[in-house]
Design a protein that fits this description.
Strand content: 15-25%
CATH architecture: Alpha-Beta Barrel
Helix content: 40-55%
Order of helices and strands: EEEHEHHEHEHEHEHHEEEHHEH
Strand order of the largest sheet: 3-4-5-6-7-8-11-12
Largest sheet: 8 strands, parallel, barrel
Distance between the termini: 19 Å
Length: 269
């Protein structure tokens, strides 16, 4: 497995020193957990600074909700939500990831300070592949629904192989796509078997999970959205034990503390 994410400007982000914690910055009115809180530049910037202070290694900025049954927005609307916020956070201390499935939005964001593309729909729009190649940046590619096989583990692996054909594998971080096009049972099955997904054709691959506060936690535990952070932390610690490199979360302070202890127990010799 590659040891670093190679960012622009010669910067590198290690995938082996510790579990990377990606802090979520939603500049949306309708995200399932924190929609509407960070629409203004001041609120978004203050939250970004707080996430970094709490220990975030990456900021993941999204301007369109991908919650179930959310309404899609236009390219222009998505860009309008980003155009003032990206310049305000691009010079903070950590890399910025742009959470979008639209090539035009990704290109705009990369031109305005973003370092990584996070496409939850797995390069469904083939033009996204060209944007990633053009800017030579890392891309997080999410599995978002069955493409090949009724067995969810086999399906995710086949999707990962198909993705490696499209792009230089050195650019790719794989997201198993918790909550995207899967039953609740399949979400749990994927989490239980992350170690199987960590190895593709005999080679370890970089893995990310984004399970924070999602509905399957409510299904499994009965906890409401605002009370799912401890369960999210349990998932993250379990994922680290299975080899996951990046966790994407809302409550950075709590999860960073859990990840650092898990790293001590599981990664240091």
């Amino acid at each position: 497995m590659k040891k670093n994410l190679n960012l622009r400007g010669g910067k590198k982000l290690s995938l082996v020193d510790k579990t990377l914690v990606m802090g979520i910055l939603n500049v949306t009115p309708d995200s399932f957990s924190d929609g509407g809180k960070y629409l203004s530049v001041d609120n978004a910037t203050a939250h970004a600074r707080q996430l970094i202070s709490d220990g975030a290694d990456i900021l993941d900025v999204g301007a369109e909700s991908t919650r179930p049954n959310s309404l899609p927005i236009s390219v222009n609307e998505e860009i309008s939500r980003l155009e003032k916020i990206l310049p305000a956070i691009k010079n903070l201390d950590v890399p910025v990831s742009i959470d979008t499935y639209k090539p035009e939005v990704a290109e705009f964001a990369l031109e305005n300070g973003a370092d990584i593309v996070n496409d939850v729909y797995g390069l469904e729009d083939s033009r996204m592949t060209e944007v990633v190649k053009k800017f030579n940046v890392p891309v997080i590619v999410g599995h978002s629904g069955k493409c090949c096989d009724d067995n969810i583990i086999d399906d995710v692996k086949k999707f990962f192989r198909m993705t490696e054909i499209k792009l230089n594998p050195a650019q790719i971080i794989f997201d198993v796509g918790i909550g995207f096009g899967k039953t609740q049972e399949e979400n749990l099955e994927i989490l239980r078997r992350l170690d199987e997904l960590k190895v593709l054709d005999g080679e370890e691959i970089p893995l990310m999970i984004g399970a924070s506060r999602k509905s399957f936690i409510g299904w499994a535990t009965g906890f409401p959205i605002e009370e799912r952070d401890e369960a999210t932390g349990a998932i993250c610690v379990h994922a680290i034990s299975k080899g996951v490199n990046i966790v994407r979360v809302h409550n950075v302070k709590m999860i960073v503390r859990m990840c650092r202890m898990a790293d001590k127990l599981l990664k240091e010799k």
